[in-house]
Design brief:
The chain is mainly β. 14% of the residues lie in helices and 38% in strands. It contains 2 helices and 9 strands; from the N terminus they run E-H-E-E-E-E-H-E-E-E-E. It has helices at residues 11-24, 71-74; strands spanning 8-9, 29-36, 42-48, 54-59, 62-66, 78-84, 87-92, 98-100, 106-109.
Amino acid sequence: MPKGHSLRLSAAAAAELGRQAAVAGTPGVMHIDLVEGSCERWVIRIRPGHLAGQPVARADGITLFAPADQGERLAGLQLDYRGDLSGGGFLVRPSAEVRTCACGAAFSPAGSPAEPAGAAGPATK
């Protein structure tokens, strides 16, 4: 995992990842991958354990793994966690390189079409 070329974790995200890993019985190890989104190109999915792939982030005793083919898409992203009385969730922080949806969990590279992969545009006659 080259320094500066990986996913960045906020302190809140690292703490919540650590909590979820411990509850799931996989202390210190979590997995992130990207699935096609509906509002933006990609949506993050986080699961406990080391399912496959390579480490993409380490912070405060947690290592986050991702499929090797998704490492480049995750590079430079910042993952945060926000919680309140009604629950919480992981968010991708917007930057100059990333456009995020209002939900915070979906993103597209800046400058790319907002339409997700495989989505059909309006029919023309």
